[in-house]
Amino acid sequence: MPSQRRIIIIGAGPGGYVAAIRAAQLGAQVTIVEAQAVGGVCLNWGCIPSKTLLNLVDLGERARHAQAWGLTFEGPVGFDLKRMMARKNDVVQSLVKGIATLFKQWKIQHVAGRGELVTDRQVRVTDVDGATSLLDADAIVLATGSSWPQLAQFPIDGQQVISSKEALELVDIPRSIIIVGGGIEGCEFACLFSGLGSHVTLVEMMPTLLPTEDDDMVAILTREFKKRKVQLCLGATIQDWQSSAEGIHATLSSGQSVVADKMLISVGRRLNSGGLGLESVGIQTGNREEILVDDHMETTVPGVYAIGDVTGKSMLAHVASAQGKVAVSNAMGTPQSINYEVIPAGIFTLPEIGRVGLTEKQARERGLPSTVGRFRYGGIGKAQAVGEITGQFKVIVDEQSKKIIGVHIIGTHAADLIHEGALAMQGGLTVQEVADMIHAHPTFSEGLMEAAEDIEGVAIHQARKRL
């Protein structure tokens, strides 16, 4: 092995740029190739922009509630979308500059252009002007992510029919919007636009929102959507639609007609595995064109690794980052793998959802006898104090081992609170060990302690007899 291994990473999203920094920390000579913006979709057109805007909507809604509690304003609370977008752009640019600074500090070479495999140890880079150059490596990491799908039924025109990218660049609040897709992205945008004052119609072909989430969480979110006056069209599809100067006219499979200013398409992602030269070097892909990898993130060609969305393993930014660390560690000679059983995730609806591990349904499907503990946000002193009483903590426990196999939270700060559950699962703790841990008061995290106590029917602030 050379004294300093050369690693090329194609893609500078949350998988690629983290992999680049970790590889440099491990002593590699690193080159990262990126055709678009450093930070990828997550930082520039996804996670960070949408959460910046959702935070402002949440802040505005809380301020309105606070007026009834004694907080005074000279005028009504409103939203200036142009200024909100400017704030979002400032946040994005600050983080992008931060990554560029880290690249300089770790002496990572950033090459602007589209990368393509020539051999399993050589990459061709084509820049914006069409000029090409060749880069040699001892190991290559493919981190090209995913992009917005081009659906024949819903061609994106960027004006009336938009993707999340265009939705995060609007400067005028639409009076009404149809959101196609009730998954994570669709539900987050439903909260954003309903909070801004748009009339939102959400169309989802499945009978529920968020079909892969825990039923209790979905039930609470559905109730909150109705309070937000989001029109839910579940178990329905758009059969026909036309655009005109007046907007979008859509006909649903139920026969219902919907008219809106815009239509946001939030269904699925396309894996960016094309155009990488995979076939020329013998890298195998799956049925969804995902790049096949083993537990060490290595493809079917030794020395070439793949991470993030393009592997089809998970469409979460933090999983891509974790995979990036694992890939370069293996490329540098230190074996590592990922435990996919303990991956916390946040859904940034209003209220938020945090989850890790199995749902009740998944536990049943695996044949795992389980017990469930629950605790309402309304029973938490901190929740009452700050006026955030909507929500629930839910703990799922293996009946035999008494270990936690799933935690689901809906309510304020759920995406942050979920990590206590993830750590408990990672450490193999029993539910009693979580219940016995002293939690600070007053905090939202007390809700998880009480949900753990509820397994035995002894939650202190829950009016229920011992089981």
Features:
five-stranded parallel sheet; single chain; FAD/NAD(P)-binding domain; alpha/beta; 14 helices; globular; 467 residues
Task: Give the helices and strands, then pairings.
Elements: E1 6-10, H1 16-25, E2 29-34, H2 40-45, H3 47-67, H4 81-105, E3 109-112, E4 114-119, E5 122-126, E6 132-136, E7 139-142, E8 146-147, E9 161-162, H5 164-167, E10 176-180, H6 184-196, E11 199-204, H7 215-227, E12 231-234, E13 238-244, E14 247-252, E15 257-260, E16 262-265, E17 270-271, H8 278-281, E18 304-306, H9 317-331, E19 345-347, E20 353-357, H10 360-365, E21 370-376, H11 381-386, E22 392-398, E23 404-410, H12 414-426, H13 431-436, H14 446-454
Parallel strand pairs: 1-2, 1-7, 2-3, 7-18, 9-16, 10-11, 10-16, 11-12
Antiparallel strand pairs: 4-5, 5-6, 8-17, 13-14, 14-15, 19-20, 20-23, 21-22, 22-23
Helix pairs in contact: 1-9, 3-4, 3-6
Category from helices, strands and their pairing: alpha/beta
How many runs of DSSP E, i.e. beta strands? 23
What's the CATH H-level superfamily name of the largest domain?
A: FAD/NAD(P)-binding domain
Rg estimate, integer Å? 24 Å
Summarize the biggest pleated sheet: 5 strands, parallel
